[in-house]
Task: inverse folding
């Protein structure tokens, strides 16, 4: 259909753009809710990508401490790209460069691999894990 009236055209564009914006915002809310539910429903959540060496290091460190993290591999998730974008924003807010792997402990965003290892080295990781209910010792 050819639109000859410029005002009609702009209304159609605004409606289309508005629907797309609402749809994208709605999808991001759903992604945020999924991440929020995972983080609050599990003592430790590790977001990574299958085959990521740093994700493997994070998982092995946690397993070595006796913690069985919930692992979410973003390349195998339907909303993986959207979750990755959300994690990127979280990591940027914490002055971190790499959003993946991303670790949540006790429903709170701990950070990436650098933060996880730093907490392990300075002795604050085990108390965090105990407070989150991931360790009972």
Result:
């Amino acid at each position: 259909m050819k639109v000859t009236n410029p005002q009609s055209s702009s209304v159609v564009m605004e409606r289309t753009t508005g629907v797309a914006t609402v749809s994208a915002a709605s999808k991001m809310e759903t992604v945020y809710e999924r991440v929020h539910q995972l983080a609050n429903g599990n003592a430790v959540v590790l977001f990574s990508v299958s085959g990521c060496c740093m994700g493997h290091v994070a998982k092995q460190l946690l397993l070595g401490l006796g913690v069985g993290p919930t692992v979410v591999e973003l390349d195998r998730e339907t909303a993986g790209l959207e979750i990755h974008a959300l994690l990127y924003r979280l990591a940027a807010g914490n002055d971190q460069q790499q959003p993946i792997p991303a670790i949540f402990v006790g429903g709170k965003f701990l950070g990436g691999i650098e933060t996880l290892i730093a907490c392990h080295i300075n002795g604050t990781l085990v108390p965090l894990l105990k407070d989150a209910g991931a360790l009972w010792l």
